[in-house]
Amino acid sequence: MKKYAFARRGLRIAAASALIGALLLTAACGKGKTEENAKPSLPAGPAETIALYRSNCISCHGGGLEGTMGPDTDLRSVGARLTEVQIAAQITNGGQLMPALKDRLTSQEIDKIAAWLAALH
């Protein structure tokens, strides 16, 4: 009888483990898609320009241009507010919170980012 009780307990443990595993698997299913969909994405643009943005601008302006340091850092429709020349000047010389990037980026790189951002309305 003890052998039978031990076997039943083993089956219960196995069933509980299987149930927990199934629940964990179900909970994780689709998690990556939800997080990926929730991440802001950058507008389409030349790969080199996107890479420049990611390595120089994303920490303050965000993964979807939404801005991380207040409304002035939101670039989603910056082309409606500023011209390409004004955007290039801002990148080059900086501003109130923004550091000047003229010592970090070439004028050609600044022009590429400015052209890309100016197209955003």
From TrEMBL:
Stored SUPFAM superfamilies: Cytochrome c (SSF46626)
Signal peptide boundaries: 1-27
Domain Cytochrome c: 44-121
InterPro entries membership: Cyt_c-like_dom, Cyt_c-like_dom_sf, Cyt_C_IC, Cytochrome_c550/c551-like
Keyword terms, alphabetized: Electron transport, Heme, Iron, Metal-binding, Signal, Transport
Entry-linked PANTHER family: CYTOCHROME C-553-LIKE (PTHR37823), MENAQUINOL-CYTOCHROME C REDUCTASE CYTOCHROME B_C SUBUNIT (PTHR37823:SF4)
Protein name as it appears in the record: Cytochrome c
Species of the source: Cohnella hashimotonis
